[in-house]
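Please describe what follows:
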Amino acid sequence: MRCTYTYPTGYQIKKVFWFKNAVKGDESPDLSNDTEYSQRLQYLGDKQQNCTVRLSHVTLKDSHMYYFRFITNITEGRWTGAAGVTLTVTDLQVESPERVTEGASVTLRCKSSCALTDRATFIWYRNSQPLTERRDRNNELLLQSVRREDSDRYSCAVDGHTHISPAVQLNVM
């Protein structure tokens, strides 16, 4: 999350940190001391103007409002970014019927909880291997005349992004 800040001349920055869920008063807990975040939060900023932070291995539960705070050498010199930064983590998943009869056709759908552009293209995987080289603008994979050998784990991704959906087991009876 990119961030910049300013403060009055003559002040010296003593402490900088990020926190979530604004707390009244002065006791905002530093996320770098939180066991849930300490291994995943990397402060990329400095103690001058840059307050950029990186959060890795994000999950849906990381969706929060985050705030930057800095404390100076002057007692009254403590500020928190009023606007904060909203982090919304989205999900990608394969929608599939629970059971499919041999010989039937089945459609798998790649669904996202975020709004994708009309230009989004999808990549399908079977047992973690790309299923085809082609990139499809349709978020559906049609499997025609399925056989028991098609009983595998299927996943999808949006082309240009590194996240792959959790795999779904297709059961052909």
Remarks:
- Residues 94 and 110 are 5 Å apart (CA to CA).
- The chain has a mean pLDDT of 87.
- The chain has no helices and 15 strands.
- The first strand starts at residue 13 and ends at 20.
